[in-house]
Amino acid sequence: MSNEGFSEWLWRAPVLVTCLWLAGFAGTASADWYRFSDTAMTTPVELEFWAEDKALANRVGEEVLAVFHQVDEQMSRYREDSEVSRLNRNAANGPVTVSDGLFQVLEKAREVSILSDGAFDITFGSVGYLYDFRAGKKPTEEELRSGLPRVNFRDVVLDQDARTVEFRQAGIRVDLGGIAKGYAVDLGIERLINLGIRHARLSAGGDMRLLGDKRGRPWYVGIRDPRSEGRNAVVLPLEDVAVSTSGDYERFFVDEAGERVHHILSPETGKSVQGVQSVTIIGEDALTTDGLSTAVFVLGPAKGLEMIERLPGIDVVVIDDQRMMHVSEGLVPPQTD
Ligand code: ADP
Ligand code: MG
After folding, report:
1. Residue nearest ligand 1's atom 26 by CA
2. Considering its fold, how many domains does the chain have in total?
3. Three-state DSSP class for residue 270
4. Does 129 map to a domain?
5. How far is the centre of ligand 1, averaged over its atoms, from the C-alpha of 128 (Å)?
């Protein structure tokens, strides 16, 4: 390198550094919509939010997605080392102290069980584990008969003061698959609020919560056609609510008799509930909407709507097996006369 060239480089260097700094600055300070996705709790997790800069957005994305892995590690019954598995192993031998989070989910599960007269029941796991939807396996009548006496939410005794859980009989297995995703979504939203985010959409499979609006307009939430993945049955403009959908199309196989065997089970018979294709609940928090969507699925359109009409601030859309849509009063369009 000649001397002349070297001094020219020296002269240019600050300009170059300034340009790089400006480029970096522009890259980190851009208010925009940011999107992150992941797979956790055996389901796709999707997050979209408005943030003032990219560095903050990356931190938010990382922290919120981490919540779903934490809840999975705590509440999955497929993990031997989860808190739920420990509970399932020990609670028949005496009271087990559990974390605040797990206790909160168990209390909500109990509340939804009472509301739905046992249609929602986390002890369905005592027969639920006999199914393997991927392998197309379902229990025999004999297996169901021997498992059903251990399906009863009243056998899970919660002591609020001691924060302990005890099973009244051996062989009870709780499965939080119908409610834990809603809990995780609520935790994720709490994290978003604490990080200063005001506009967001967060979903884990069929459980979603909206934070604020989409900056001046509502979020448009599609309720999919249960028999056609790419199509919506209806699209609702919403903001600041939780929306949960339970469907018979998520995990299922068709058995030798041509019946759809899917993952929402009747605690009475231990078999997949027939008569409904999907249920969508709209409410304030995802823990509640998740539990209720599974409950209404089991209850069916008539009893399900009756239960929802008794609950202030909760609405429902049921699509039955004739593809008829049933909606609660809060969603009925105003009459034009
Ligand atoms: P998704 O898991 O597709 O979001 P749901 O919220 O309806 O849909 O949850 C379905 C899950 O709920 C099942 O995979 C199972 O783990 C659990 N479940 C099935 N039947 C019942 C029931 N009667 N009560 C409580 N939980 C149930
Ligand atoms: Mg649910």
Report:
1. 178
2. 1
3. coil
4. yes
5. 10
Q: pTM to 2 decimals?
A: 0.91
The structure tokens listed for 314 are 């909760």
Q: Tell me the average pLDDT across 98-120.
A: 98
Average pLDDT of the residues in 217-236? 96
> pLDDT tens digits, residue range 167-196?
999 999 999 999 999 999 999 999 999 999
Q: Take atom 27 of ligand 1 and give the residue whose Cα is closest.
A: 178
Nearest CA to ligand 1 atom 9: 178
**114 is a domain residue:** yes
Determine the distance separating the centroid of ligand 1 and the alpha carbon of 297, expressed in angstroms. Answer: 9
Contacts of 238 (CB under 8 A, 6+ apart): 210, 218, 219, 220, 221, 282
- Is residue 178 within 6 Å of ligand 1 at its C-beta? yes
Residue 137 lies in a domain: yes
Phi, psi of 206 (to 5 degrees): -90, 10
User: Which of 286, 284, 287, 282 is closest to 308 using CA atoms?
Assistant: 282
Cα 298 versus chain centre, distance: 17
Q: Has residue 28 been placed in a domain?
A: no
Measured from the CB, is residue 118 less than 6 Å from ligand 1? no
CATH number at residue 143: 1.10.3980.10
Residue 110 CB less than 6 A away from ligand 1: no
- Give the structural domain span for 96: 83-167
